């Protein structure tokens, strides 16, 4: 099946161009999502926990709320893995020969990206609220905690951009699926419907009428009298 242009992708089996691949906007934005997830994980994992001198237990810097640290690290770990998976999917997307497979990939990309943008929005609100209630954070932890909040905020727009590019692909595929026959390349002249196999020629070659042959003899066309 010829899938050239299906859901914004090239023809299946085409040559792979590394330079063109890394310059694609979806690939660039996905790499940004990967980078932001690494930063959030690094900020919280490095300075997000401290050991209390009173009881020796480990607490989260965000108002001693363990769930806040776990939430920030959790969504970032999944975002880290998902970003790598979707970058690999961008490479495999060109190799997908089935239009239905491409459609499923685009829908999965759009749904996951939109959902993770929402989770990062929740994380931004959650961490900001917990940090605002923190009275005396340990020395040297403020920059990391504020950095994690900031990059949670940036991640919202990065994942929204991924969902937007996926939506554009889906719309391209839907428009191609419902395009009129006269807009399909190679369908013939505008307004013409494609003929089914074995159909007669819509413009047959006309022959002379059978009674138009010239007469060789003298014929009397006078009406008989009674």
TrEMBL record:
GO terms for cellular component: neuromuscular junction; synaptic vesicle membrane. It is found in: Membrane. Residues 196-226 are annotated as: Disordered. It is a multi-pass membrane protein. The chain crosses the membrane at residues 27-51, 71-93, 105-127, 147-167. Its main location: membrane. It comes from the Eukaryota. It holds the Pfam family MARVEL. Keywords: Membrane, Transmembrane, Transmembrane helix. Belongs to the synaptogyrin family. This is Synaptogyrin. The lineage of its organism: Eukaryota, Metazoa, Ecdysozoa, Arthropoda, Hexapoda. The gene is LOC113394183.
